[in-house]
Design goal:
Blueprint: H1 3-17, H2 19-23, H3 28-49, H4 63-75, H5 81-101, H6 106-113, H7 130-137, H8 145-160, H9 164-168, E1 175-176, E2 183-187, E3 193-197, H10 200-213, E4 226-229, E5 232-235, H11 238-253, H12 265-278, H13 283-290, H14 295-302, H15 306-316, H16 332-338
Antiparallel strand pairs: 1-2, 2-3, 4-5
Helix pairs in contact: 3-5, 4-5, 5-6, 7-11, 8-10, 8-12, 13-14
Length: 342
Amino acid sequence: MTARDDRFFRLVRDFLLVYPPKNRCCSPHTVKAYRDTLQLLRRFLRDEKQVSFPQITFDHLDHHTISEFLAWLETTRHASVTTRNQRLAAIKAFVKYAAQENLTLMAAYTEVSKVRAQRAPRAPIAYLSETALAALLAQPDPTTNRGLRNQFLLILLYDTGARIQELLDLRLQDLRWQEPVPCAYLTGKGQKTRVVPLLPRTVQHLKRYLDRFHPAPFVLDTWLFYTVIKGQTGPLSPDAVARFLHQYAEQARTQCPEIPVRVHPHLLRHTRAMHLYQAGMPLSYIKDFLGHASVNTTDIYAAADVQMLRAALEKAYVDPARRETPIWEENEALLLQLAGLG
């Protein structure tokens, strides 16, 4: 193996095993996204360019090859523009790391930097109306253990506006339901923790859930939502939540047709944000509530609500037929006096 090949292999290994998880404290999901991207790149070079993994060098990472790789993702794997851009960002992160570790690779970083992300059309933000949300939350049967758990999970997911993984990572020690202001400590992207208050009715549901699933004395270092498989306790998976949420949505749609065809955990986060915005909460507060790094990310909710736009237009509309004539119109003496010229 040549020195160049050994360098590529070594930097891939260090990037996946050392740099993101230990130096940057990235989440396992971010590391997995990096690994999946490099695996896809390896498969592309093997299948389309007949370059095996030991033969890959940084010379293969020129802007033409990366552009072809991204096109391959779209045509062969039917990746969306968003997914394409995420894969490109992961490759750029790896090559930037390599260039920082070895300055002779700055040329490779310059090549990859020439590849631009595609502009993705911004789709309207999907969210549930209050009627649709109520229909969805009414589907679990709280008289059963599973129904009680599922209903409370959906209530907490909506109330906190959490990402699904943030919610499933919660342990009992992350909840302060007995404080004067009950709250939950959520750890999001970049291992950043934010505090989200809990509404009184949510606390009532929490206490009912704890009585059933976490009877005293509490083991604080226990997952709030867990599953037991062959006697082993572990956290509930996002896939399990997605499955029962899809089932409840199918049931609720028979009663409430406005529930969209695609209902997923992140939809409840969008729903919470939209309801807060409709209630008049400033975007800067919603940004902190959701854990966004920039208010620019939160701006999507300001552009999403047609009903609020219509209400504002109706409020500003003046019917010309009902226009009142100002008292100074056709009264030159009064107009001069009001202007300080009389």
